[in-house]
Amino acid sequence: MENTMTLDSNTTFWLWLGFIGMTIGTIVILTFWKKFKPEHRYHVILALMVTTIAAAAYYSMANGQGVIEIGDKTVFFARYIDWILTTPFLLLSLIYVGLPAASDPEKKRQQSWLIGSVIFADIAMIATGAIANFSVTTQDKTVWFLASMAWFVVVLGLLFGQIRTQIKQDNPKNEKAYISMLSFLLVLWVIYPVLWLLGESGYSTISPTSEAAVYAVVDVTAKAVFGTVLLASLVKRKGAKVQI
Fold first, then answer.
1. Rounded Cα gap, residues 157 and 61, in angstroms
2. Which residues of 61-100 are buried (b: 16+ CB within 10 A; e: fewer)?
């Protein structure tokens, strides 16, 4: 039984570039390990989890795995496995830039609920987007795509609303860094639904190769580059040994 698909060579080229980009990003992120105190290396671990999972996803797609055909379209389901695992880690990386660990039990509970709410909304966003991609009829695609966009709005509302407010209250000096990294991520995340609509999942107004190319560039930037910039900014703010 065949468990792989033969993809267009140009599409495969971009998938391999995505794998190479994530692998290089992983190596670069590893160089930050000794720049953080042991108790704060979770920043590096989160970034590594993102790039290693993404590298595995790209490797599987480049080999024709993690890909299926539904009707007359090709669905890269490995992307959704990647996103549903990595986007929560990306959000945690972002939130931990600005939100200090609470010592008070009540405040700790509030933070846990707040962070949990963002992660839940994020997973719901990816899951409903995946269902939209697997849907066959236009009506089903539209309903699930709009559901995914609604969850995206919830994620943004929490990040720009309650979490930012919490950072202002608990650690205002970190607000600027948080907003800077959030804006970086937001610009990239907005591209995904637009690309979904333009690509094979939506109206097929761009070629599969162009779609794969944009996904590869945006993915590497949103994961490997984002993680590197975030870690570098923490080191720059706190000195050679991060103490946050």
1. 33
2. bbbeebbeeeeeebbbbbbbbbbbbbbbbbbbbbbbbbbe
Tell me the C-alpha distance between 83 and 77, whole Å.
10
The CA distance from 227 to 43, in Å, is: 9
| pLDDT tens per residue, range 137-172 | 999 999 999 999 999 999 999 999 999 999 998 888
| Residues of the chain under the 50 pLDDT cut | 1, 240-244
The amino acid at 240? A
Amino acid at 104: D
Q: Provide the 8-state DSSP code for 242.
A: B
Supply the pLDDT for residue 53: 99
Query: How many residues comprise the chain?
Result: 244
Asked if residue 219 lies in contact with residue 54, where contact means CB atoms within 8 angstroms, the answer is yes
Burial of 143 (0-12, 13-18, 19+ CB in 10 A): middle
- Give the per-residue pLDDT at 3: 58
Angstrom CA distances, 184 to 10, 42, 62, 175, 225, stand at 29, 21, 27, 14, 10
- Amino acid (one-letter) located at 122: D
What domains are defined for the chain? 9-102+173-238 (1.20.1070.10)
**pTM listed for this prediction:** 0.92
